[in-house]
Amino acid sequence: MKRRVLGRTGLAVSAIGFGGWAIGGNAFGNSYGSTDDAESRRAVRRAHELGCNFFDTADVYGHGHSEEVLGDALRGIRHDVIIATKVGGNFYNRDVNPLVASRIAEALGAPLERVPADAPLPVTHDANFSPSYVRFAVEQSLRRLGTDYIDLLQLHNPPLGLIADPETYQVFEDLKEEGKIRSYGVSVHPPEEGIAAVEVTRPDTVQIVYNIVRREAEDRFFGLARAANVGVIAREPLANGLLAGRYRPDSTWEKGDIRARMPRPYVAQVVGLAERMKELAGQAGVTPPQLALRFVLDNEAVSVVIVGMKTVAQVEENLSLEQ
Q1: pTM, two decimal places
Q2: In the chain, is it the N or the C terminus that has fewer CB atoms within a 10 Å radius of its CB?
């Protein structure tokens, strides 16, 4: 698979990366439906066989489950790949706000006092980017991934004030010095957050939503990132799967799937665009997902595009674009 340089990290990454959100499963919602762990592991291994070397996940995906599946699948080939994960979502029995303690206990069916300290909980109850929490969470991620270092550690959707504060990144500099991580970045939502990350000069990468529906990053962010040699990781190239050409305006999803919570007018709009993309894809001799990926990859500011995949068939369809 073709390689691109991930900004000033110097890492040579496959143009298409493996997005590990979906393989976290649906045990705690905020997912893409049910999964089969054995098939997820096969998908990861098949991606590696086809030349994918960039695997992106987050500790909060399945409350650690995505990292566990990924670490298991990459056992024996760890040094052939680049692992990126994220930190910030607090789903542990740690630093629990007293105002939500009763709600968590209700979800558990037991008082928090009976739950081991630092144990995972069934809800993500807060965001935490304090140095002590980051250090704790990184150790948990290293254990689940079965590795002694993380190639790219990313803050997971922090608020703008933290992104723009240079002090936020000191713990990441310390972790680099200690060999726990090789580089660090920020995962953001609006371009303004990405611009703040570039302007503060500390993060090596910015992960941002970019697809044919969400093009806001084109106006200012991409230019600034390229000028600063900040690696750009484009996520959600298929607009949460809606551009795959497999859904209708009245499609429904199981409880816990994030698409079940999306406004119906938005779903109808994107699915309508997907129908037009099916026509264009047919004319170009590619599939709709491949056309959506090509749109993202044709922007020179993008270092790598990560697409969610949980089956071997999805891997083979998506990765054949860059063979």
Answers
A1: 0.97
A2: C
